[in-house]
Amino acid sequence: MNHTDQEFGQPNPNAPAALSRFAFLIGRWRCEARVWSANGDSQTFQATWLGRFILDGYAIADEYRMTSSSGELIVLGINLRAYDAAKQIWNMKWLNALAGTWVDLGAEELGGVDFDDQSIVYAFKEPVAGHAYTRATYANISKTHFTWQGEKSDDGKVWSELMLVEAHRSEE
Q: Which residues lie below 8 Å from residue 103, measured CB to CB, with a gap of 6+?
């Protein structure tokens, strides 16, 4: 096992093949996150994203950390992603470490997780934000880059831009 395998793990050959859909997250990413306020102004923050295969390669854990220009921690959490092959559904949760709260991601009643050749999309109910739902879209996925777009909605029908993260693979 080489250093990269030890640090980031490997998919288990017996894990559902669908797990590979999120394997692009494995590794270290440096990010620039642009966040829009209610009045349309935006701010840019620095962030990191770190993905690993966990639990003997049957699941993926990816940590997200965003800081202000002064170094203040604004967002800190971890996504846990596993695929239930019997039910053919994703089980994904976000742990907001700063608040100690869990959020279900991509719930079936909100449309589940949608994959096409260009992107991955899912929605979730917002437990603390000033809007009811957030929709997450991963796009422009390559070995060295991906984009995460967050949109907000009060009714799950009309969406507006909330956040855009440009992630670039880091060799650090």
A: 93, 94, 96, 124, 125, 126, 127
Alpha-carbon distance of 108 to 87, in angstroms, equals 11
How far CA 102 is from CA of 24, 28, 71, 106, 114, in Å, comes to: 23, 23, 25, 13, 21
Q: Which domains does the chain have, with CATH numbers?
A: 3-169 (2.40.128.20)
Provide the token pair at 117.
């050749």
Nearest CA to 106 among 82, 130, 128? Answer: 82
Q: Averaged in consecutive runs of 10 residues, what is the pLDDT profile of the chain (172 residues)?
A: 71 96 97 91 96 98 96 96 96 96 94 93 84 93 97 91 96 70
Q: In what order do the strands lie in the sheet with 145-153?
A: 101-105, 89-96, 73-84, 59-67, 42-54, 27-36, 160-169, 145-153, 133-139, 119-125, 113-115
Q: Structure pTM?
A: 0.92
